[in-house]
Design a protein that fits this description.
By secondary structure, the chain is mainly alpha-helical. The protein contains 23 helices and 4 strands.
């Protein structure tokens, strides 16, 4: 292609399939035949170094405190894993086309230009532009292997269930949730969990790993439901160990999560029946393509459009913005009078060529870089600041109602303790160092009421001071996931040995612990420590009294 003005250079765009051997040959032949001044490749500095065998960049500890680093790496991992699977299917290393372009240019003594946007910027913008439903859909696909509405329903159900559980414990009596039901449910959960572990251990001697896991889970669920819930066996022991508060917490959480998942999956199935959130095309569709077809730009573009249907916002950051960014680089090279061969993915070719023909339509470069702003009203930030305001108002209003400092310190101490214990405990379960878990636990009380912070960031910060993590870990994770014969329990253990996955789990589990603790504090702890104040109802009345006293004080000050 040569759409240039007199005195300018020209650009030929070569569209490739990143996992196609035919694309490698086409790139090598084109570069040698054209002998351009510059070979431009769809790479940034970091990916270029990795293709050349260099060491990937470490994640800096300070970067973890920028907000969504861990989530961005999950998105990067997901995209890398999909491409890796396609490369394995067609026996070609992903990125071989770009590496061929670079090596051929070097052999011919030609300049190489890296014209793609930095991968970290792309992934950050990709994550920010994905909608909540799209993220839930992705999580459903990764967790349950279901990318349609059933997966969304399952993920949504679990999230709702964690919130619903404490509400069941607080207001369950009004809808028929008795102490006996909570006790039987908690007993079923504890008994079923213990039985599942024992049965898995026994089954692992004679069954393959995944079959042993299924046998353990199935047998444990059956024993828990029949013996624990149906017959009430072990209720005395469980009640004695957990206590009344523990039974209420476990029982209501189990009821809430189960109800949320059942409702979520049911709604998902109904949406599927009406054709909403249709499944994303899976591996079976790739079987239809032979090697020759895969190199065709129309087929690759069709695959890109399938991704656009899955995530319109993500596709904007991953495809459209990069088309414009690369086109900006190529226009600049053309205006400098250079003859350029640009090697890009086939899905980008049409968009880039359109911009090369009409460069006046290019969006400003500053709109394609930096942190992407989310569209729509910032409900998340509003909720976060609302939590902070409610927490501060809670103590202020109680103080204005005449509650003594000793009682306020007791309530605050309980808040500090339950947040710290849950955050630190779950961080340790994920494999955090004692120092890391302790730091997360110590700041959990503060971060749980601050929408701009999370305890997991601090836990991860300390972890990174001892264990280097870099994007090269994603390749290790892809290798592990590609082995379909490894039992799932063993696979999880191997993944936890990879620093990046361990970091993700440590950060996530610390945050989850703090979130759970916050709900438990409101729904279970306050009624216990404020029982002489009338429980939740009494505390609410005191807060109303504090509000009236505050209003009177303000009015007297003004008048």
């Amino acid at each position: 292609m040569n759409d240039s003005s007199p005195g300018e250079g020209h650009v030929r765009v070569v569209g490739t399939a990143h996992v196609s051997a035919d694309s490698v040959r086409e790139v090598e032949e084109t570069v040698r035949e054209e002998r351009p001044d510059v070979v431009a490749v769809e790479l940034d500095e970091g990916r270029y170094r990795q293709l050349k065998g260099g060491t990937p960049d470490d994640i800096e500890a300070r970067d973890l405190l920028r907000g969504n680093t861990v989530f961005q790496f999950i998105a990067y991992w997901m995209l890398s894993y999909v491409q890796s699977r396609m490369g394995d299917k067609f026996d070609v290393k992903p990125g071989a086309d770009m590496l061929a372009a670079v090596e051929t240019a070097e052999e011919e003594g030609l300049d190489v230009a890296l014209v793609d946007r930095d991968i970290q910027v792309t992934i950050q913008r990709f994550w920010r532009r994905m909608g909540t439903l799209e993220k839930m859909r992705m999580a459903g696909d990764l967790l349950f292997g279901v990318a349609d509405a059933r997966g969304i329903g399952a993920v949504f159900g679990i999230a709702v269930g964690v919130v619903l559980g404490p509400l069941v414990g607080l207001f369950g009596g009004a809808v028929g949730v008795t102490d006996l039901l909570l006790t039987r449910t908690a007993t079923a959960a504890v008994l079923g969990g213990a039985a599942a572990y024992l049965l898995y251990t026994i089954a692992s001697f004679s069954l393959d790993g995944d079959d042993a896991v299924l046998a353990g889970l199935g047998g444990g669920a059956a024993i828990g439901i029949v013996a624990g819930f149906g017959l009430g066996l072990g209720t005395g022991l469980v009640s004695g160990v957990l206590g009344s508060l523990g039974v209420a917490i476990v029982g209501s959480l189990v009821i809430g999560v189960l109800a949320g998942v059942v409702v979520g999956v049911t709604v998902g199935a109904v949406l599927n029946a009406f054709g909403l959130f249709a499944p994303v095309e899976g591996d079976a569709d790739y079987e239809e393509f032979d090697m020759a077809e895969l190199t065709d730009g129309d087929v690759v573009s069709a695959m890109m459009e399938e991704f656009r249907r899955f995530s319109p916002g993500g596709a904007e950051a991953l495809i459209d913005e990069r088309d414009a960014y690369i086109a900006h680089q190529l226009v600049a090279l053309r205006q400098s009078g250079r003859h350029v061969v640009a090697v890009v993915g086939a899905g980008h070719r049409e968009g880039i060529e359109r911009y090369l023909e009409h460069p006046e339509t290019l969006p400003p470069m500053e709109s394609l870089v930096g942190v992407a702003e989310k569209d729509g009203f910032p409900w998340g930030k509003l909720l976060g600041f609302g939590v902070t305001a409610v927490f501060v108002a809670f103590f202020v209003l109680l103080a204005m109602a005449g509650v003594g400092n000793e009682r306020l310190l007791t309530i605050f101490g309980a808040w500090f303790l339950i947040n710290g214990v849950f955050a630190a405990a779950l961080a340790k379960v994920a494999g955090a160092r004692w120092t890391s878990a302790a730091v997360g636990g110590l700041v959990a009380w503060m971060t749980s009421i601050n929408p701009l912070l999370a305890p997991g960031w601090f836990t991860g910060y300390v972890e990174l001071r001892h264990t280097p993590v870099n994007v090269g870990d994603i390749g290790k994770l892809n290798e592990l996931l590609s082995d379909e014969e490894t039992p799932i329990v063993e696979l999880v253990g191997q993944m936890l040995d990879v620093p990046l996955f361990k970091l993700i789990m440590v950060v996530a589990m610390t945050n989850i612990g703090s979130i759970i603790a916050s709900f438990l504090f409101v729904t279970y702890v306050i009624p216990v420590i404020a029982s002489d104040l009338g429980g939740v109802a009494g505390v609410t009345n005191l807060m109303l009294e504090g509000a009236r006293n505050s209003a009177d004080l303000i009015w007297r000050s003004l008048t």
